[in-house]
Specification:
This protein has 369 residues and is an alpha/beta fold. It has 6 helices and 11 strands. The N and C termini lie far apart (133 Å).
């Protein structure tokens, strides 16, 4: 006798049949994946893209820093400009991978530096002769341009300029850095990281321009910071004795600038498309008690120099800083302290700035020889 299935039993069998068939199809699809993957390289890019999921967007590792509130506001482009193909060499058909230098990435404890224009006027405005007067003397800086140039010189093969470093351990950030670590300090005994390297760039450039210079690389603050000016004075006197032709002394330093909230400010401008640390001339007087009766000759020279640089490289110079201390400047009428940027500037910015300074300095000396 045959057993007849009920309607409910038939529906249950159909359900199980569908489940088993689905399982067989799923297993067959999994088994076919390696064969499909092997076929992908032979497919066109468009067809392959249809079979592959869209990649997840990657986060950029490029650090973002706030811009300083000063007058200088650097501009940044988010995209690389399209190169001019007419200037590119013809391809030989071989792939040449690029090897870009990675941008430095801040680590734990690093803080940003803030670029600012500290020259007291804007780029595009007529350069001004400004004075930051820290003395009791009343000084009209523009009137010093009416005085005679105080130094009689002749350009020869003999050394004319001495470059020294009373605070030779003053250092900069590495090239490309826009951040610093407060725990690292701002000094180094490595010449390549300090104002000594900047002095070497200056010396080399002056010689290329026909101005013979002597570079004393001694770090006079290395052994005893408090005796730095005493020791550098002895070094300057020794050089003047050895080279009587020297009429000018450049004591190369770098500044340290922080605002009231503790932000590390780097004085910065742009000249001929290059970022340059801003510079400052510091001139001493006899107000502090040192014998320096002819300090106005030094200020006259500094005023001529500031005016020369303003004409060639507007916004490079901060105001002249007149101080109560003598800074060994009584030894020659052409002695100045040159502050090249601050501890927030990197070495590239300092190098760019000192090259501009050298060009203007050499021109002034030649024009007044």
């Amino acid at each position: 006798m045959k057993t007849k299935l009920t309607v409910a039993q038939r529906q249950a069998l159909l359900k199980w049949f569908c489940l088993i068939l689905s399982a067989i199809l799923f297993v067959s699809a999994l088994a076919a994946i390696p064969h499909l993957a092997a076929m992908l390289p032979k497919m066109t890019g468009q067809a392959a893209a249809l079979l592959l999921p869209d990649p997840e967007p990657e986060e950029s590792n490029r650090p973002l820093f706030p811009i300083g509130s000063g007058k200088f506001t650097p501009t940044a482009k988010d995209e690389e400009e399209q190169p001019d193909e007419s200037s590119e060499p013809e391809s030989n058909g071989e792939y040449e991978p690029e090897n870009p230098i990675p941008e430095p990435i801040p680590g734990e404890g690093d803080k940003p530096v803030y670029p600012s224009n500290l020259c007291w006027y804007e780029l595009g405005e007529t350069p001004e002769m400004n004075l930051l007067n820290r003395t009791k003397y009343s000084v009209n800086l523009k009137s010093f341009l009416e005085r005679d140039y105080p130094i009689k010189t002749e350009i020869t093969d003999e050394p004319l300029v001495l470059i020294v470093h009373t605070h030779g351990t003053e250092s900069y950030l590495p090239a490309g850095y826009e951040f610093y670590n407060p725990q690292d300090g701002y000094r180094s005994h490595d010449e390549e990281k300090t104002v000594v390297h900047v002095g070497e760039v200056l010396c080399k450039r002056l010689k290329e321009l026909g101005i013979n210079a002597v570079h004393d690389k001694t770090m006079y603050d290395k052994s005893d910071f408090n005796q730095a000016y005493v020791n550098s004075r002895k070094g300057i006197q020794k050089a003047l004795s050895e080279y009587p032709s020297i009429k000018y002394v450049i004591d190369v330093h770098r500044d340290s600038v922080f605002d009231s909230s503790g932000k590390n400010i780097k004085p910065l401008t742009e000249i001929n498309g290059e970022k340059c640390a801003q510079l400052m001339l510091v001139i001493g007087t006899d107000q502090g008690g040192a014998s320096h009766p002819n300090w106005r000759d030094n200020l006259t020279f500094a005023t001529y120099l500031q005016n020369e640089i303003n004409g060639l490289f507007p916004t490079l110079m901060r105001p002249i800083n007149l101080r109560t201390a003598a800074f060994n400047q009584a030894l020659t009428k052409g002695s100045v302290i040159l502050e090249v940027g601050s501890c927030g500037n990197n070495m590239t910015e300092a190098e760019n700035a000192i090259l501009c300074f050298a060009d203007a300095y050499a021109k002034l000396l030649k024009d007044n020889s």
